[in-house]
Design brief:
alpha+beta; 6-stranded antiparallel sheet; about 40% strand
């Protein structure tokens, strides 16, 4: 099933999940001593936790594949990288079957900087790390 067909799926017959997708900036020009990243929270509609996790990972991979040759971070050429799905939260709307949000809608985001690639991996796995929260 493609993302477009998933996006057109009627969510009211499935469970809503908020998926926390971790995206990091990777520099194209050499060593990297910090890892700017965003935690994007998107709505996913699925019948099971496993299906929701799979769909969230697909959304992250698709976002990372949007390449822009002119993308820069702190003046350096860069690209986005999908790191992982940090957590998945089941959303509930008691008494409402007509939610106005749909599959793939970004609900919120957070921007952090991590001190190392090891911290980036731990963060994406849902483990505790020290972060600089920028936004």
């Amino acid at each position: 099933m493609t993302s477009m067909s998933i996006a057109k799926t009627e969510c009211f017959v499935k469970t809503h999940f908020a998926a926390h997708i971790v995206m990091a900036v990777r520099y194209r020009d050499g060593l990297q001593d910090s890892f700017p990243c965003y935690e994007n929270v998107v709505l996913v509609c699925a019948e099971t936790d496993d299906e929701a996790m799979s769909q969230a990972a697909q959304l992250g991979r698709e976002e990372a594949n949007v390449e822009a040759d002119d993308f820069r971070w702190d003046g350096r050429p860069a690209r986005w990288e999908f790191v992982g799905v940090r957590k998945l939260i089941e959303c509930r709307s008691p008494g409402s079957i007509q939610d106005r949000v749909s599959h793939g809608t970004e609900l919120t985001y957070s921007q952090f900087t991590l001190d190392s690639e090891a911290d980036l991996t731990r963060f994406a796995n849902g483990d505790a790390v020290s972060v600089l929260c920028e936004e």
